[in-house]
Design brief:
The structure is a single chain. The longest helix is centred in the first third of the chain and has 40 residues, at 2-41. Residues 31-53 and 58-64 have low confidence and may be disordered. By secondary structure, the chain is α+β, with helices and mostly antiparallel strands. It is built from ten helices and eight strands. The chain has a single domain (45-277), classed as 2-Layer Sandwich (Muramoyl-pentapeptide Carboxypeptidase, domain 2), CATH 3.30.1380. Helix content is 46%, strand content 12%.
């Protein structure tokens, strides 16, 4: 009789321990899944209130310096493309300026400003094609909204200062806050928005900038048709390692119709276009 009681007691203890083990394993599994999701989603959302921060710098990736020679692997079989790229560049130099961390704008940079009805400013050279682009968008029964266009250096510096202050208020030191800020905001002189040739274009009902905008009908239309009007999607998803900037389906850059069609046909970023210019 005592043996039966002992076996029942051992079985009860074993069952309780097994239940505790299963519960612990389940909790750990849920924690791991949540950590993975948070990690995957980090740095991907930008609210409209901070739309000026759309230069989402991928600091872990390499930006190609303007003075770098094209690697041999890129030069192979690209002599004809290089020739065509050089001819396009010669005809459109003012539209094809490369701006990034390695190639900042000179302090003396100026352009003819055109103020849109919305109050945003763009380069006069881009206006005619921008008008055609947005008119075609409306004709497709789609309605757009401009989140950001030209920003001067003072505005860019103000964005940086605001972000630094906010990070410092959360407990970071000034050095830490500045480093954190530069993960999502370009340094003064390094933002494409300072050229007047870049715009952040979304649907009229969009109030935040996220990667899933690629599925929005209006944004998708811009992505598919912009090259016919002289614009390129500046920071494509598959070219993050080339541009050094995270995917931005809303950021469009005017390079002129000739260059835009060439770059679209050959799936080139502006950095890769510049590499062709350096190909013998």
């Amino acid at each position: 009789m005592n043996n039966i009681k002992k076996r029942k007691k051992h079985y009860r203890i074993f069952t309780q321990e097994l239940m505790i083990l299963c519960f612990t394993a389940t909790v750990l599994f849920i924690l791991i899944i949540n950590l993975y999701r948070r990690s995957a989603a980090s740095g991907k959302v930008y609210t409209a209130a901070y739309s000026e921060n759309s230069d989402n710098v991928n600091t872990g990736d390499r930006v190609i310096p303007e003075n770098e020679t094209a690697p041999a692997s890129f030069q192979n079989n690209n002599s004809e493309l290089s020739k065509e790229a050089k001819e396009i560049y010669e005809r459109n130099k003012s539209l094809l300026i490369l701006v990034n961390t390695e190639s900042p704008l000179p302090d003396s940079y100026e352009f003819s400003k055109h103020t849109l009805n919305s109050g945003f400013v763009i380069d006069e050279q881009a206006y005619a094609d921008f008008y055609r682009l947005t008119r075609a968008c409306n004709d497709a029964n789609l309605h757009y909204n401009i989140i950001s266009a030209y920003r001067d250096r003072e505005t860019q510096q103000g964005i940086i200062d605001r972000n630094v202050n906010e990070f410092m208020q959360s407990g970071l030191s000034e050095a830490e806050a500045r480093e954190k800020t530069y993960e999502t905001v370009q340094r003064v002189g390094c933002s494409e928005h300072e050229t007047g040739l870049s715009l952040d274009l979304v649907d009229e009902n969009i109030f935040s900038l996220t990667e899933d905008l690629e599925t929005n009908p209006t944004v998708k239309w811009f992505m598919e048709n912009c090259s016919e009007y002289g614009f390129i999607l500046r920071y494509p998803k598959e070219k993050v390692d080339v541009t050094g900037i995270n995917y931005e389906p809303w950021h469009f850059r005017y390079v002129g119709q000739e260059a835009a069609r060439f770059m679209n046909e050959h799936n080139l970023t502006l950095e890769e276009f510049y590499l062709l210019l350096k190909t013998p």
